[in-house]
Amino acid sequence: MLPDYLQDPRLGDIKLLAVDMDKTLLTDDRGFPEGLFERLDALYEAGVVFCPASGRPAPKLQEMFSGHAHKLAFCSDNGACALWHDEYVFRDLLDHDLYREVLNFAAQRGNCACVLCAFNHVYMLKRDREYAGEVGVYYEDIIFVDSFDEVDADANKISLFFPEWDAEPAYADVYGPTFGDRLYITNAGREWIDFMNLGVDKGSGVAHLCAQLGIDEADAAAVGDTYNDIPMLERVGHSFIVANAEAHMEEHASWRVPSNNDAGVLALIDAILAAKGDRA
């Protein structure tokens, strides 16, 4: 088992804290832990940049952190967008022919709902309307189409929703071998597969922000729970997983914090603030 987060001897050096959302910061009912926003204010005053790092789009993240968004950085769309002070510092675009190829391939297989993520809105097939509630957790503006061949929008991510929670074998057996040489593909939990351009992931998104802010990646920290968090955990100098993380994630982090339902991220924030106070 990984050592406790308090064993990190350089907590006081952390200047950017990138945190996954679902099952890491958010509780199982997708709520914020009580006391989060007071701690965000304290981090800001201490000169630490807090960065939600999520597969969610930037507008949704900004809405979720309304009132504090101007103080935060965001690594959205699994690293395909990065924002600082409400301004984009990085935006990635998929090739239109390639995203149509992937979406049509998945649609023909028929065991998932296909989603094209186009910044402020998404495209879904009309036949998949029954899954709009799940997609609507992340995107409010859903455009339903008969075929992806009629779509020619700028987009930065493809997501496939597997209602039977069999995304992991689908990735390993089908999508990784078929498209892995042209796209970065990752599981986001057991129900989602996400596709971005090669070289685009949460790690690269955090790196773009560090470069923009003049922060050494060794002084950045990340907290996560599953596959799509691995690139940022392996990129930063301080890597943490929540106690409820998938067992295989211990291979990709240095320390463990309490679970999402036990406000593990808040405990880490308190420890970072305490370490900075002790050093002052």
TrEMBL record:
PANTHER family: 5-AMINO-6-(5-PHOSPHO-D-RIBITYLAMINO)URACIL PHOSPHATASE YBJI-RELATED (PTHR10000:SF53), PHOSPHOSERINE PHOSPHATASE (PTHR10000). Transmembrane segments: none annotated. GO terms for molecular function: magnesium ion binding; phosphatase activity. Coiled coil: none annotated. One of its GO terms (cellular component) is cytosol. It comes from the Bacteria. This is HAD family phosphatase.
